[in-house]
Amino acid sequence: MFEGFALTGQSVAFFLVSLFVIACAVLLLSQRKVIYMALAIGGVFIGLAGIYILLEAEFLAFIQVLLYAGAITIMMLFAIMLTRHDDLDTQEKITAHPVWSAIGAASIGLIVLYVLKFSGVRWPESTESPWAGKVNVNLIGDSLFNQYVIPFELVSIIIIAALVGAITLANREEEEE
Amino acid sequence: MLALEQFLTLAAILFAIGLYGALTKKNIIIVLVSVELMLSAVNINLLAFSRYGFVPSINGQVFTLFAMVIAACEVAVGLAILISLYRNRNTTNVRDQDLMKW
Q1: What is the pLDDT of residue A1?
Q2: What's the ipTM?
Q3: CB contact under 8 A, B69 and A155
Q4: Percentage of chain B surpassing pLDDT 70?
Q5: Which of A113, A118, B27, B75 is the least buried, fewest Cβ under 10 Å from its Cβ?
Q6: Do residues B90 and B97 lie in contact, with contact meaning Cβ atoms separated by under 8 Å?
Q7: Which has the closest alpha carbon to A59: B49, B11, B68, B38?
Q8: Do residues B97 and B85 lie in contact, with contact meaning Cβ atoms separated by under 8 Å?
Q9: Concatenated DSSP letters for B56-81?
Q10: pTM score, whole prediction
Q11: Which of 18-47 (B) contact A at CB < 8 A?
């Protein structure tokens, strides 16, 4: 699939990490118990942090571990435990629905892979790191607080709105009683 | 040396897996998890183009940062809606949430 593939430390690390990510994602699909699925998504998120480090986005890798593998996975686990989770995720009757879903998902994936490989697009050759000798956090901070300062402020409004909305939604029952 | 193609391939595979999970899973929380998987695949694409694309630039990483923040907000609101739904209807099965289905 990857012609001209040189066996360097980076590529070996990429293969191991992406194998781990895809294995955890398949585990997410194949598990029957809901709580194991949430643990599998934690594995996917940690593996993705490794992919981000290979893409030279160290700051985002740490954010990924803190935000996704830490906060979001734990929040999912809390939600699973607050709701009924003892029933297995079973198929009560055989329907055509999973077959059509599999065909749809596989065809979308295959179309993207076909475009990647056979569309004749010349993807750029891998180059030297554009950020050699610069600190990743400094670059992101410069860009964020100079060029993207308005979106940054808007994001804080969105966070406040989401926080208030989440509390209101989850609390509504008790206020009425 | 790594190339753009490998990261795009990984992202495409993850996106397809997440799409299949979002379409077939019964538990509504797992559907939300699968949507997060698809969002992460998009994040890989953004970062890959930011590092190995035609014009390497830090902008892709800033976009990924915004996408992550919005995804975290989405999960918070989504889980609150889920818990509210569970209180009212006492089920987490996606197939039972058919109030607006005709």
Answers
A1: 47
A2: 0.90
A3: yes
A4: 98
A5: A118
A6: no
A7: B68
A8: yes
A9: --THHHHHHHHHHHHHHHHHHHHHHH
A10: 0.87
A11: 18-21, 23-27, 29-30, 32-34, 36-37, 40, 43-44, 47
